[in-house]
Amino acid sequence: MNEVTKQQGTEQAVDVDSLAGEAELELASRESFAGAEDEGADLTPLAVQSMGERKAIIEALIYVSDEPLNAKSIAEVLKEDQSVIEAGIASLVEEFNGRNSGLQLREVAGGWQFATRPEYHEHVRAFLKWKPSAKLSLASLETLAVIAYKQPITVPEILDIRGVQSPSSIKTLLDKKLIVAKGRKEAIGRPMMYGTSKEFLIQFGLKDLSELPSIEDFEDLASGVV
Amino acid sequence: MNEVTKQQGTEQAVDVDSLAGEAELELASRESFAGAEDEGADLTPLAVQSMGERKAIIEALIYVSDEPLNAKSIAEVLKEDQSVIEAGIASLVEEFNGRNSGLQLREVAGGWQFATRPEYHEHVRAFLKWKPSAKLSLASLETLAVIAYKQPITVPEILDIRGVQSPSSIKTLLDKKLIVAKGRKEAIGRPMMYGTSKEFLIQFGLKDLSELPSIEDFEDLASGVV
Amino acid sequence: MDETPESLEPAVAGDVNLPTTLNVAGSTPELVADIHSDDLKIVMGEFDGPLDLLLHLIRQEQVNIYDIPVARITDQYLSYLQQMQNLDMAVAGDFLVMAATLIELKTKMLLPRDPFAAAEDEVDPRHELVDQLLEYQKYKAAAQMLWSRATVERAVFKRAELETDKNNPEVVVGVFDLLKVFQDILARHKDEVLLEIEREEISMAEMIERLRNMVMSSGELNLRVFFERARSRRELVVAFLSVLELVRTTEIRLFQRETFGEILARVAS
Question: How far is it, in rounded angstroms, from Cα A17 to Cα A25?
Answer without folding.
Answer: 14
